[in-house]
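I am still getting used to backbone structure tokens and would like to learn alongside you. Please make up or recall a protein chain and show it to me in full. Would you write everything just below, so we can both look at the same thing?
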Amino acid sequence: MAGPLQGIRVLDFTHALAGPFGSMILTDLGAEVINVERVTATDATRGNQPFINGRSTYRFSIERGKKSIQVDLKHPDGKELILKLAENCDVITENFSPGTMDGLGLGYEAVSSRNPRIIFASCSGFGQWGPYSKRGALDVIAQAVSGFMSVTGEPGGRPMRAGASIGDTLGGTYMAIGVLSALYEREQSGLGQSIDVSMVESVGYNLENAIIRYSATGEIPQRIGPRHPLITPFQGFETKDGWMVIAGVRDWEAFCFLIERDDLAHDSRFENARTRHSNHAVIEPILMEVFKGKATEDWMSLLSDVALTAPINNIEQMINDPHIQARGAIVTLPVPGPEEGVYVKVPNSPVRLSRTGPVVDKPAPFVGEHTRQILRDVAGLSAAEIGRLEAQEIVRSKPEA
């Protein structure tokens, strides 16, 4: 089964996490993504620990299914080679500091003059322009400046970073959405365009509730721990064997009967949703003690008709969850290297289409694995021309490629 983006070719200059995550989305949806890497890069120096079979699992997780070429972007012949490749590509993705691609002579104006249909997607911390555009940014910077960390954490405690790098992954996700939008628009106009995605704005886009509440009330949202700002009970509770969440109660009287606390049903402080929420500081410790009395599965079974519940899984439990497995939400990929039979698990794409994929079934490439193939098939170079570029170290190929 081919993905819906089959036939779309992406020249990918991304690094770290935000950009590669975005181009990974395009890969999973069937695009041919060609990752351009430094000529000095090696598999041993590319990416963070842990390493498995000589490969960085960090890089492996976001480079699966892509192709890899190595080009010296600072050499005039390397620059010309990239422009030649861009003539036969649909999309360029990059997440360098703003101005870097222009400085290399490979910015949108230079590339679009050779290929007016090119879609040039840039993802950066603060965007391509504005007072902060030149500032460096990683995930935690995006979470901090966006306001996300100010509403994450325990009341009166320290601001907390999310447990996943949402500044990066949201930036990459919106970059991919921008590419898909531009590809559709190109079908109407015949022209490409540039895309400017800010990691900070990507995280802020997901704070719509906090932003509109502040706008409506003038009250600055605060850290409130695991609970919901508007609904009670709506949070995590420790059970006899783990943790679970309750996401609202449909029938408060029946709920109180099932947890063997009928007295709560007739307490004026908890008689309706508004009073329960205004008295959350009173009801929360009571429920905390109640839920320690039974195992998570027992509570979920008991409360299924009156409240929305779920276990708080750790990563191992999530991977082995029967629903996750039945849906194929985790896939196993081989890790080519010195040892045979080495595999890792990665998330499948959450985008499911009835006819056209996506397909997550290929490992990450070795550095330079596809240099010769891409130069031959996309740039149209002869074996002699490729040999000259290799000899001058303008490009580099994996030895056995």
Q: What stands out?
A: Residues 69 and 371 are 4 Å apart (CA to CA). The chain is about 40% helix and 15% strand. The chain has a mean pLDDT of 96. The first strand starts at residue 9 and ends at 12.
